[in-house]
Amino acid sequence: MLTEKIAQEIVRETMNRLNRNINIMDHTGTIIASGDPARVNQIHEGASDVIRTKMPLLITTDNQEQYKGARPGINLPIQFQDQIIGVIGITGRPEEILEFGELVKMITEMMINQSFLASQIEWKQRIKELIFEELVKSEPNDDAVEQRLNLLHVKLKSPFQVSLIQIKENPLPNQELIQKMEELLDAQHMLVGFFKVNRLFILTSATPEQALKRKLEMVGAFLQHVGIQFHIGLGAPVTEQRNIWRSRDEAKLALLLGDRKQRVTAYADIEILALIDRMDPDMKQKYVKRLFAHLTPKFIDTAEAFFANNLSITDTAKSLFIHRNTLLYRLAKIKELTGYDPQLFKDAVSLQIAVWIHQNRTSTEE
Predict the structure, then answer these.
(1) pLDDT by residue (tens digit) across 253-270?
(2) What's the total number of domains in the chain?
(3) How far apart are the C-alpha atoms of 53 and 69, rounded to whole Å?
(4) Which residues, other chains included, contact 9 with Cβ-Cβ below 8 Å and sequence gap of 6+?
(5) In a domain, 161, yes or no
(6) Segment 326-356, tens digit of pLDDT
(7) pLDDT, averaged across the chain
(8) Residues 237 and 302 grouped into a single domain
């Protein structure tokens, strides 16, 4: 637990405050960090004595000769979880440094404990991410997943559901962001972590979909509050653990095809778009070219707004800031140029599909 990196940090931070030389020795009495680099990797005989006796040692001019290479000062045992893991030495006249020696020891032990806790959190987080990576494989190793879940004392229960969050410019430390999201989701049977640099995953289990959507809205409100741009894609729930990859893939499609104006896009909201997305690209482009060959961007935008407003003349005219008669003229022109009437359900479906393909192509090009 007492690594050279931690020891060097302790020496640097302590010396800046005390303006005295500090030595950190490991459990063998070897100096692993010092304000005097020449002493690193040497055996500190005074520290060896402290480790053997488990007692502090004062080295003065009177007993200095008993400890080869030692200088006057105090040497205090460093304890972690009731074990002596090293020694901290402060160079100087013992009577001058005794008063703050215990304080330095306490600060040192606190830094080691904090480093340990941080490493434990990092270790647990990496386990979560490894579990998710395994679960979304087409043929996951169930034994490996179960072993890792047991390490975390986490139990996943059906149904399972994956959410993916695409973020930009995260101002928070990754672990702080994850912990906050776990608090908001308030779920015991779940995993949260980073799937890619700017993409987080949430794997929930034993959680009703409507309850999950409400919690995701809370997560979205928090992300917006801290200034993180985001979009959440929610896959459909699955009952079998081996099908979690399907929910992940659906969440990816929800991110790709969903309306970025919405905080959360569920796969069910874009399922027809997903079906269109799987169509042959050449077939899709041929279809759009045939329907929109004679339409200008203005007419395509008009059709898009008309469908977005559920074929409402009044609402569409308002959203486009045009007169009702102007909209009716444009709709008539679309019928004339395409052969499909936007105001008839059957024709509107054909035009809507063309609009979706056009939108997806435009967003991909951008």
Answers:
(1) 999 888 878 899 999 998
(2) 3
(3) 20
(4) 111
(5) yes
(6) 999 999 999 999 999 999 999 999 999 999 8
(7) 90
(8) no
